[in-house]
Design goal:
The chain has 723 residues and is of the alpha/beta class. It is built from 22 helices and 38 strands. Strand 20 and strand 21 form a beta hairpin. The structure holds flavin-adenine dinucleotide (FAD).
């Protein structure tokens, strides 16, 4: 008999850092996951830039998206949990990782690929004035800002690069090219502590690169003893020698992440010492690769090529370790071909004492780099299991939708199904929460749960808590009692306890901020993670229902819309990683303050959830017996939502929401389709008397709480005119 239940998770593999080796491990994991093992990737940003193409980006030959590996997409392909955060410690005894912005996480097997930081960051003035070449993401952002500012002001930048090795030279040439192409021929100075630059390159490559530096008018300052960095530039030891600069870059070599020294891992000069299997020499369940590791059996310079070559062995060894099998040996090559770009589309080789140069070398480098990145640029087909030969009628029509069903609010049943199932009249007002009077005291009660849209239980709990609170805030009430309902996915008992801890921590963060806490609940195990909360709220005044909107009222909204397409797009690997994270940040924003500010004035109030902006507005119009005019151009959208809508992405619930267009006058477009996009933790939608709306806007502005005017209430039957 076939058992369709998912297998329990028994082992946790954590990949710390989205470096090159881990990106490749995830790619392989997507092809061959290990049943029973859960993978978590931790990285401070949603994207990890590929170094090979950084100089080409600086020179203007590539766009930022060309060199970014989208970790959100990669994690989805690999079925991995992605945590956007920065590790600040590892307790190897307890097998836990401390993170900067959220509670620690556990692991059974840990792999570290966090790269390096740049040297010289401890120079006086560095914190304010030095832009390290590593990590690459912030460096690339700073360069883009410099170019944009220079374009706006017409002022050529003055650049100082500390470090005359290959990285410094390559960056200097790339910057010189970009500035001359932008008609801003700024000053570029390469500052080297020793008496000569490019000491590690062969003589032929060095000659060619020096000729390129001369051509590009990059000034070389050797034997420089940098003492202080300031807004004016780089101060050398001699008092008179101030090198003017408004963009100071460190390319002076590698420095290990300082926090590694506080772990009990054996280090070599600050780098994690690993054996021939890439495993820590003193902690057998910890692996390290790339620049942050030091291979004791075969020390090599810090270069991306080694991280890339280590990836297949790391992949196999992580799987072997998770399944108690023997590990493989990694034997690094002795030397490697360096291809150094020279700003314009040409490059120089450096290997075996030979330095070839020219456009064909650039084309070769471009081909190699593009082939590397091509692995990460596309969505992969997620296979849907074939249906069995014998099956009941009707299954074929539902199967694909079922297999691709959205999580969070996209999994809500439609309003039509609810009305049918609950056997209520179609025009029955369904308010956000039940209002229960007990003597003088009036309370509101609501319950809500979310089917997991990813496997991060802490994040899901936070979002489910905010989502459930939406109904309480929408009634103008203050939450006072919370009960949880949790369904855990199949897990071993220790992982169950861990997940409950994560859920409790995520929920507590939200409820603590609202002055309440979980009083009890119920937890069971099932097919997939689901987290919900039942909440009671206290009313200090009459509840604000859907029913009070009056002609002349102003219609306002407190969050941009588009979470439905963001989640659906992410599931289909089509959402941009940064946009997806911005959508998560928007969902994670509490509405307690917004509710408090609207309370005194709102004539009708609701939170936008599964039925979308149009559906929830229609609910207000039906309950109030009025019509509305909606300014489509003024409805705020999450970044990337329109692009996803234009690409045809729709949430599972969208078609039934869109059926309510029958009560609307609108010209269909991708933008207007977003009015039916189901929202998870959507904003509050309120109607305000025109006379008090300016006061409300000022109150929101004074506490930096966003609010948008999106239309007005008009006289007439329940109907939305979209303009
Ligand atoms: C200008 C320049 C040009 C270069 N060109 C080349 C080249 O052409 N060829 C070559 O082989 N090498 C090149 N290198 C060297 C190359 O950049 C590195 O060797 C390579 O990036 C190392 O890869 P990695 O996997 O170790 O880590 P990285 O690619 O550095 O990735 C580390 C990741 O870990 C994340 N991270 C950092 N700290 C934490 C933390 N505490 N918690 C969680 N995540 C964390 C970072 O954000 C990053 O995403 C160049 C370097 C520079 C500066």
């Amino acid at each position: 008999m076939n058992d369709p239940r998912p297998l329990p998770i028994t082992r946790d593999l954590v990949l710390l850092g989205g470096g090159h080796a881990h990106a490749l491990v995830l790619k392989k994991w997507a092809m061959a996951p290990l049943p029973g093992a859960r993978v978590t990737l931790v990285n401070p940003q949603a994207k990890a830039p590929y170094t090979g193409m950084l100089p080409g980006f600086v020179a203007g030959h590539y766009q930022r998206r060309d060199l970014d590996i989208d970790l959100v997409r990669l994690a989805r392909q690999a079925g991995a949990r992605l945590i956007i955060d920065c590790a600040i410690g590892i307790d190897t005894e307890a097998k836990r990782i401390q993170l900067q912005a959220r509670p620690d996480i556990g692991y059974d097997t840990l792999s570290i690929d966090i790269g390096i930081t740049s040297a010289l960051t401890d120079l006086p003035g560095a914190a304010e004035h030095l832009i390290p070449a590593k990590p690459l993401g912030p460096f690339a952002d700073a360069w883009t800002t410099l170019i944009d500012d220079a374009r706006k002001t017409g002022q050529a930048p003055k650049v100082a690069i500390l470090g005359g090795g290959v990285a410094g030279v390559e960056l200097a040439l790339a910057m010189a090219h970009r500035l001359s192409e932008t008609n801003l021929p700024g000053d570029i100075r390469l500052i080297e502590a020793e008496d000569t630059i490019l000491r590690e390159s062969n003589a032929s490559a060095r000659r060619k690169l020096r000729a390129e530096l001369d051509r590009a008018r990059v000034e070389i300052i050797a034997n420089a003893n940098v003492t202080v960095l300031s807004g004016a530039g780089v101060q050398l030891r001699s008092e008179q020698d101030l090198i003017p600069a408004n963009f100071i870059v460190s390319a002076a070599g590698a420095a290990p992440h300082a926090w590694l020294a506080d772990t009990s891992l054996d280090l070599e000069n600050g780098y994690v010492a690993v054996d021939k299997t890439l495993r820590s020499i003193n902690t057998p369940n910890v692996f390290a690769t790339g620049d942050c590791a030091h291979m004791v059996h075969a020390p090599r310079p810090k270069a991306g090529v080694f991280a890339v070559r280590q990836a297949p062995v790391l992949f196999e060894n992580l799987r072997a370790h998770l399944s108690d099998r023997p590990l493989r040996r990694f034997s690094p090559q002795r030397s490697y071909l360096k291809l150094i770009s020279t700003g314009r589309k040409s490059a120089v080789t450096d290997k075996w004492g030979i330095g070839l140069a020219g456009k064909s070398i650039w084309r070769l480098k471009d081909r190699i780099d593009q082939a590397f990145m091509e692995q990460f640029r596309h969505a992969t087909e997620m296979s849907v299991a074939d249906l069995p030969q014998d099956r009941a009628a009707g299954l074929d029509e539902l199967y694909e939708d079922h297999a691709n069903q959205c999580g969070a609010c996209g999994a809500k049943v439609s309003q039509a199904v609810l009305i049918d199932g609950l056997e209520v009249a179609p025009d029955t007002p369904l308010d956000d929460a039940a209002i229960v009077a007990n003597g003088d005291q009036v309370q509101v009660f609501s319950t809500d749960h979310l089917r997991a849209f990813n496997s991060d239980a802490y994040l899901l709990a936070k979002i489910a808590a905010i989502h459930a609170l939406g109904d309480i805030w929408a009634m103008g009430a203050t939450p006072n009692t919370v009960l949880s309902q949790i369904i855990l996915p199949p897990l071993s008992p220790d992982k169950q306890s861990d997940m409950i801890r994560e859920i409790t921590a995520g929920a507590a963060e939200v409820f603590d901020a609202c002055g309440t806490r979980i009083a009890g609940g119920h937890t069971s195990s099932g097919a997939e993670l689901t987290v919900g909360f039942s909440i009671a709220g206290e009313l200090e005044r009459a509840p604000i229902t859907h029913a009070g909107a009056a002609p002349g009222d102003v219609l306002v909204l407190t969050k941009p819309i588009g979470t439905g397409v963001a989640l659906a797009g992410e599931m289909r690997q089509l959402a941009d990683g940064d946009d997806y994270c911005a959508a998560i940040a928007s969902m994670s924003r509490l509405q307690a303050r917004a509710s408090g500010l609207l309370r005194e004035h709102a004539t009708a109030l609701t939170d936008i959830t599964g039925f979308g902006l149009a559906g929830h507005l229609l609910n207000i119009l039906e309950a109030s017996g009025v019509s509305a005019r909606l300014d489509l151009a003024h409805v705020p959208l999450l970044d990337g939502a329109l692009q996803l809508a234009e690409a045809g992405i729709r949430s599972t619930l969208w078609p039934s929401n869109a059926a309510r267009a029958a009560n609307m006058t609108l010209t269909q477009s991708a933008r207007s389709d977003l009015l039916f996009d189901p929202q998870t933790c959507g904003g509050l939608l309120a109607t305000l008397p025109a006379a008090s709306s300016e006061d409300v806007f000022s109150a929101f502005a004074s506490v930096n709480e966003p609010i948008w005017k999106i239309g007005d209430i008009t006289q007439g039957d329940p109907h939305i005119l979209v303009q």
